[in-house]
Amino acid sequence: MYYTRFNTRFCEIILVGDEDGLSNLYLNTGEGKRSFKISDRWILKDDFFIDVIKEIEEFLEGKRKTFDVKLNPKGTDYQKKVWNELSKIPYGEVSTYKQIAANIGNEKASRAVGMANSKNPIPLIIPCHRVVGSKGKLTGFAHGLVIKERLIKLEERNRDLF
């Protein structure tokens, strides 16, 4: 596995992946409840991630709506089902935990969707920041609500630009 770290105007980002795809994207905001440790077994390889970094920077500058990155997230089949559904939320829009649960076949599974959402190893690209509470309230972002709000506002501002 390879990794790199780089700074953006939002926070430091750590990427982890290999030839099979990106497996982790960590938003090092200093907030939220997720922690992340770089393994001694991983190899620092900045040039491996040049294209991914370019896409992330374009996204954070409001110049990109979608990503062309090969992904390889690790998780259960259920988590992957939820993450796949998150990927269908259009840029600049939000969905609720209940809507996601209904879309995958069980509208009573809002909490399970929230748990799968919190385990998303590739935020931004798998856009878990686009999921809000049933009344539109910002809730439950593993990297902190400040960055979640900033990302949602960024997308709302740039939704119609391209």
Outline the fold blueprint.
Blueprint: E1 2-7, E2 12-18, E3 21-28, E4 43-44, H1 50-60, H2 77-86, E5 95-96, H3 97-103, H4 110-118, E6 131-132, H5 145-158
Parallel strand pairs: 1-4, 5-6
Antiparallel strand pairs: 1-2, 2-3
Helix pairs in contact: 2-4, 3-4
Second rung of CATH, namely the architecture of the largest domain: Orthogonal Bundle
Q: Largest beta sheet: what is the strand line-up?
A: 3-2-1-4
CATH level 1 name of the largest domain: Mainly Alpha
Average of per-residue pLDDT values: 93
Strand percent estimate? 15-25%
Walkthrough of the structure:
The protein starts with a strand and ends with a helix. The mean pLDDT is 93. Helix 2 (77-86) crosses helix 4 (110-118) and helix 3 (97-103) packs across helix 4. The relative contact order is 0.17. The protein is globular. With 162 residues, it is of the alpha/beta class. It has 5 helices and 6 strands; from the N terminus they run E-E-E-E-H-H-E-H-H-E-H. Strands 3-2-1-4 form a 4-stranded mixed beta sheet, with no helix packed on it. The protein folds into 2 domains: 2-60; 77-158, Arc Repressor Mutant, subunit A.
